[in-house]
């Protein structure tokens, strides 16, 4: 199991992050193949992580035991068709798709056979070993499951899901949510600049505060997040004024609605792709 070869087909933002997490956590670079049409992206993956690189997807698939499909959802059918057209023997390969909005059923149609498959919904903090991945398995062995768990727990927290539909919930909660946090950080950063801080100061202030808040939550599991917020909020004080403004403008409901929009888009993609 430890000496399986894993190929990442379409090494862009997400695969780069997973590979980074794997390398940080001790996977051998020689057991990882990165592919991309773009030679510069491959050169970067090789320079940063020492992994093997290959521009020819078919060669990478042939050499690997585990194939991570990591192109944009709209590119997936075209990619899979190239495997079918080449008549590759993929019957014994384990496929992992990180794509949003493509079901197991649809992926198997694209690959023209009922391959062993894991749907994974990771997120980009995987690069730092701080990722979260939701995993849904379709017809894989216990040994394969253990390998996949080893890969994705090397990039952070990995949880197995009982129902495929939960992948869409994971997208809303963790796959897309780094962007929600970044948007919040961007808003504070922009206002800090408007208040007169230099862009460098604004960035330093916002990122340190975000990190501090996350580490406080992480290190004090016995205190609820609501309580951590209350601890900053003096009665009749400044934070209270800010938080009341956010609540009066429906921030919690807006976030919940945004997460529903995320899930609805994933479901819509499942019908379209
Ligand atoms: N970016 C994110 O935060 C997350 C992305 N995902 C999923 O990951 C997948 C990839 O997303 P990103 O990494 O963000 O996109 P990306 O565009 O950064 O990476 C995809 C890469 O695939 C390459 N590519 C396209 N067609 C190819 C082909 N036929 N052969 C070889 N390389 C090819 C492109 O040049 C590109 O560099 C998507 O399906 C997305 O749903 C899942 C969770 C989080
Ligand atoms: O935006 C997207 O569709 C992908 C899936 C989760 C994060 N990025």
TrEMBL record:
In the UniProt record, what gene is named as encoding this protein?
proC
Similarity comment? Belongs to the pyrroline-5-carboxylate reductase family.
EC code(s) of this entry: 1.5.1.2
Q: Per UniProt, which keywords does this protein have?
A: Amino-acid biosynthesis, Cytoplasm, NADP, Oxidoreductase, Proline biosynthesis
Residue span(s) of domain Pyrroline-5-carboxylate reductase catalytic N-terminal: 5-101
Which HAMAP family does the record cross-reference, listed alphabetically? Answer: P5C_reductase
Where is the protein localized?
A: Cytoplasm
Q: Which GO terms describe its cellular component?
A: cytoplasm
Q: Which reaction does it catalyse?
A: L-proline + NAD(+) = (S)-1-pyrroline-5-carboxylate + NADH + 2 H(+); L-proline + NADP(+) = (S)-1-pyrroline-5-carboxylate + NADPH + 2 H(+)
Task: Please give the function described in this protein's UniProt entry.
Answer: Catalyzes the reduction of 1-pyrroline-5-carboxylate (PCA) to L-proline.
Q: What is the source species?
A: Pseudoalteromonas rubra
Q: Where does NADP(+) bind?
A: 9-14
Tell me the Gene Ontology biological-process terms attached to this UniProt entry.
L-proline biosynthetic process
Binding, NADPH: 57
- What is the protein name stated in its UniProt record? Pyrroline-5-carboxylate reductase
Q: What SUPFAM superfamilies does its record include?
A: 6-phosphogluconate dehydrogenase C-terminal domain-like, NAD(P)-binding Rossmann-fold domains
């Amino acid at each position: 199991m430890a000496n399986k070869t894993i190929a990442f087909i379409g090494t862009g933002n997400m695969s780069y992050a997973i590979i980074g997490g794997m390398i940080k956590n001790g996977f051998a670079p020689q057991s990882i193949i990165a592919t991309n049409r773009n030679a510069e992206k491959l050169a970067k993956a090789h320079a940063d992580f020492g992994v093997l690189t290959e521009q020819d997807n078919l060669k990478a698939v042939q050499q690997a035991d585990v194939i991570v499909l990591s192109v944009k959802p709209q590119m997936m059918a075209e990619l899979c068709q190239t495997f079918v057209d080449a008549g590759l023997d993929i019957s014994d390969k384990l496929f992992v798709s990180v794509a949003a909005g493509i079901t197991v059923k649809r992926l198997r149609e694209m690959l023209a056979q009922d391959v062993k498959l894991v749907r994974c919904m990771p997120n980009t903090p995987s690069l730092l070993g701080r990722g979260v991945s939701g995993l849904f398995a379709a017809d894989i062995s216990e040994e394969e499951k253990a390998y996949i768990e080893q890969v994705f727990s090397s990039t952070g927290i990995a949880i197995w899901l009982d129902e495929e539909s939960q992948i869409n919930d994971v997208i809303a909660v963790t796959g897309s949510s780094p962007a929600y946090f970044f948007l919040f950080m961007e808003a504070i950063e922009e206002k800090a600049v408007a208040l007169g801080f230099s862009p460098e100061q604004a960035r330093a202030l916002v990122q340190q505060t975000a990190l501090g808040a996350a580490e406080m939550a992480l290190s004090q599991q016995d205190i609820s997040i609501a309580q951590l917020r209350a601890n900053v909020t003096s009665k009749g004080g400044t934070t209270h004024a800010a938080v009341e403004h956010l609540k009066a403008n429906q921030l919690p409901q807006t976030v919940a609605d945004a997460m529903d929009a995320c899930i609805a888009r994933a479901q819509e993609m499942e019908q379209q792709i």
